[in-house]
Specification:
Strands 1, 2, 3, 4, 5, 6, 7, 8, 9 and 10 form a ten-stranded mixed beta sheet that branches. By secondary structure, this protein is of the alpha+beta class. It has a single domain, classed as Pseudouridine synthase. It is built from four helices and ten strands, in the order ββαβαβββββαββα. The two termini are 25 Å apart.
Length: 227
Amino acid sequence: MLDWVLYEDNHFIAVNKSSSEIVQADETGDETLAERVKTYLKETYRKPGNVFLGIPHRLDRPSSGVVLFAKTDKALSRISTMFKERQVRKIYWVVLDTPPPDPEGVLVHHLLRDSSKNKSFAYPKPRGGTKEARLSYRLIAATSNYYLVEVELITGRHHQIRAQFAKVGCHIKGDLKYGASRSNRGGGIHLHARSLQFVHPVTKEETVITAPPPEENLWNVFRSMGD
């Protein structure tokens, strides 16, 4: 099994996305993560013809971490419903340039998506077109300049983590779009989808899929703090 394959059974496959990959096709025309996974399935199992692969959720291109795909239409339908009904626990790691408001807490904002700028704006109160965004967080490690924060998404909005932390004066390392002072080499940001946890819709077993962060200097520093 390839290093980036985190989990696989007859119904699902989960892989560890890099910060340079897109999950599905966009205007760049670059090869997608979905295409790579299809190729892996076709070659590994010698599947003739087209390979089905369902996409129940996505990650922003500059983010890294676990992405789950469905291998059957039935699995896609079931897991998509679970994502929609918030039955999938989503944990992220972010590296911030400023400590969060408290060592742990909940952020609640109202997000307005601007499709023309591919950006979301956070407001303290509802206004026309906004959607409530809610997440919980806790500070888990720090260096002299950066802060590793674990985030659990309670809602799932466009650029939610990026927009909410920017609103409280914290910027994800490398995230120029939301106020970081400088970019990362390669254009990625320090936002990592750490794990997905759910009751498997077919086997009914508790399933936890965890993705190690990228091999990169700062991530490695934080990884060593946890060892």
